[in-house]
Structures are given as C-alpha cells and as structure tokens.
Amino acid sequence: MTGTLSVIGLGPGDQRYLTEDASDALHAAEAIYGYRPYLDRIPIRSHQIHYPSENREEGLRAAAAIRHAVRGHNVAVVSGGDPGVFAMAAAVCEAIDTGPEEWRTLDVEFVPGITAMLAVAARIGAPLGHDFCALSLSDNLKPWELIEQRLDAAANAGFVIALYNPVSRARPWQFGRAIERLRRHLPTTTPLVFGRAVGRTDEQIKMVTLDAAETASADMATLVIVGSRETRVVVRPGREPLVYTPRAVAEVSA
Ligand code: SAH
Q1: Which residues contact 29 (CB under 8 A, 6 or more apart)?
Q2: Taking the model in full, what pTM does it have?
Q3: Do 110 and 126 sit in the same domain of this protein?
Q4: From the CA of 221, how far away is ligand 1's center (Å)?
Q5: Ligand 1 atom closest to the CA of 79, numbered from 1
Q6: Does the structure show a pLDDT above 60 at 1?
Q7: Containing H/E element for 125?
Q8: Of 4, 87, 128, 207, which has the maximum CB count within 10 A?
C-alpha cells in the first residue's frame, strides 16, 4: 500500500501561524478533507481536490479520507489549531482502531499546529504559566454531568482551565451553567480571559473577573481561560493588563 494520510493542524487562523511542516504537507496532498470553514482558509492548487464536510461529521470524514488514501493517494485531513486537541487526529485513530484490518498498514502522520489556548494565552501574558488543563464544554460526545464533575475537580485542584467549545447554536445554556459552577469554587476576583477568533482579522481579547463574566461574551470562535487562585493581573498605565500564573506555588492551600 503506497498511500499516505497526513493529519494537519492549521493553527488558529492567520497563515503566519501555519508551520513550515504543515505547509509542506498541504502542498504535497492530492486531496484535502476537512470541515468547510477550515478548507476555505487553504488555497486550492491545480492538482488538488478539496472535500469539505460539515461539523460533527468527524467519523465519516476520517473514514472517507482513509479509504481514499488506501487506494494509493496522498491525502490530507485538516483541523484548526492542533489536530490532536478536540479534533481530527483522534477521529482518524479511532477509525483505524475500529475499521478494516488493512487500514492498520496505512502510512499515517500527524502534523502539529498551534492550539487555540496557546494563541490566546500569548495575547495576554502567561495565564498557563503553571499547571493547567483543557476541557471541552461540548456535551455532544459526553454527558453534561461529567463536564460538571470535571469543572469541580479542576477548579478545586488549582488548575488554570482552558475551556474549548464554550457555546454553539445547539448548546446555548452550557457555558452559563459552567460559570455558575466555577463560582462555587473560585474567588469572585478570579481573572477570565475571553479570546475570540485569535489570529484572524476579527480577533478580540477581553479580561474580566469571574463575578462579572457574561455568557454573551463567548461564541463558537471563543476560547476562555479561567484563572486559578494563583493567577494574577498586572495593571499597567496606558497598556492592556498582563495576566499570568506564577511558576511557583509556596504551599498547599486548605
Ligand atoms: N483543534 C482546535 C480546537 C477545536 S475545538 C485547536 O487546537 O485549537 C473548537 C474550539 O476551539 C472553538 O469553539 C474555540 O473554543 C477554540 N478555537 C479554535 N480556534 C480559535 C481561535 N482562533 N480563537 C479562539 N478560540 C478558538
């Protein structure tokens, strides 16, 4: 079998965030599969065919791309940010895990990209400077109750929390419930960073405290970083504040 499947991260938006490795892999592909808005970011080359699909079709998309590659072609699957973070890399692995035996012999490579939480953090300082975790607020693939349990555990464990997928049209109330939940555990002054469409022309970065956080500030293109008890805000005259989490913790809090 001579086909290849590359699972490629496009970074958060702007072409400058695309790695050289990702750019080379995109150039080499004969066929590119992906969620339509991600494919729209990539210029189509004369030798290439794009196969756009809709959101929530990851499993079908992965299987279609694998079948195409198995026929002996150089095929790419793209994700925004990093393909391993709430994206196509796991869908491809799962398809290989559960699919026909011959898929296991396919040459597969994963090309990393800058994930949204790193791009947002870099805009405001170093909120992820100490221990942190990432949670998807989407309850499409897991029960809401589990998300609440993980929010409780993460906040109590002192992790800074990067919240992916805070809101979508089909999930209007979840982010509000998450904020309520976090207010049970964290001080009202805890900083929250809302990073919207980072790396794109309509980028917005906003810092608020937990008591003032409004659910309307987040949409599908927003990543929210919730500080820990240690996270600090550095107010600067004439400049945006810096948000950072110090690298050292002196003692275990009660
Ligand atoms: N694989 C992607 C994440 C896919 S989940 C990555 O590594 O970044 C989709 C979620 O990612 C969105 O709901 C949003 O929370 C976040 N996201 C993706 N791109 C973003 C961007 N440019 N700015 C802010 N958040 C973004």
Answers
A1: 6, 48, 74, 75, 76
A2: 0.96
A3: no
A4: 6
A5: 1
A6: no
A7: strand 125-126
A8: 87
Same domain, 54 and 95: yes
Which H/E stretch holds residue 121? helix 116-124
> Of 86, 114, 142, which residue is a domain's last?
114
> Residue 188 Cα, ligand 1 centroid: separation in angstroms?
26
Going from the Cα of 79 to the center of ligand 1, the distance in angstroms, rounded, reads 10
pLDDT in tens, 105-151: 999 999 999 999 999 999 999 999 999 999 999 999 999 999 999 99
By alpha-carbon position, which residue is closest to atom 2 of ligand 1? 81
How many domains are contained in the chain? 2
**Average pLDDT of the residues in 26-41:** 94
Query: Of the residues 82, 114, 146, which one is the last residue of a structural domain?
Result: 114
Tell me, yes or no, whether 198 lies in a domain.
Answer: yes
Taking residues 163-174, report their average pLDDT. Answer: 94
User: Which region holds residue 70: left if phi is over 0, alpha if psi is between -120 and 50, else beta?
Assistant: alpha
